[in-house]
Write the structure tokens for this entry.
Amino acid sequence: MAEATLAPLLREVRACRVCAEALDAGCRPVLRARATARLLIVGQAPGTRVHASGIPWNDPSGERLRAWMALDPARFYDQARVAIIPMGFCYPGRAVNGGDLPPRPECAPLWHGRLLNHLPALDLVLLVGGYAQRHYLGDRAARTVTATVAAWRDALPRFLPLPHPSWRTRGWVRRNPWFEAELVPELRRRVAALAGADATSRAVSPVPDDRPSPLGPVPEA
Ligand code: SF4
């Protein structure tokens, strides 16, 4: 049943034009989800490449994220196992300093609660970057991404915070060796259990339609 109601919701999301006046590149919501997904990746917002292709994480940041997770593209893009829902679904445009603008603030409050209520099988949510961490951890998010990620054990078992895997992260990883020594092995262990090669039978097993969201009650807006 969750799958049957998720499909029209995804169509509704993909037709969303709420931010049309603010988006120079136009509205193109990029997200993926199936009701059987046990792993959710909440990133930031599409960049230009993702906006052009319509494929989330189809860029060097995605390659780095997949390397951290030890997932090949086939498993990473298997919607039956992995849902991908960023904080802003549409490319927000270019900032005057040359970087991308933040995710549209309308998006997550408008859509995330409704979408999560259609993903009853979720066991783990990867919070990639500060926007996702602040939205989902609330007061439990520290003042910096580094501090939030350093306290990753406190967010488990529901959430696992990660830095955004942009090219800038290479220096950050060198300065924070605990990330690759401690967090990445735990990330890979949990991802393998939910979306790895041996997770097929668990990942696509039927989920009772009335199973409550593992994230607890989620407001619709
Ligand atoms: S960013 Fe989100 S709320 Fe804004 S138009 Fe795109 S889908 Fe709609």
User: Anything to note?
Assistant: The two ends are 22 Å apart (CA to CA).
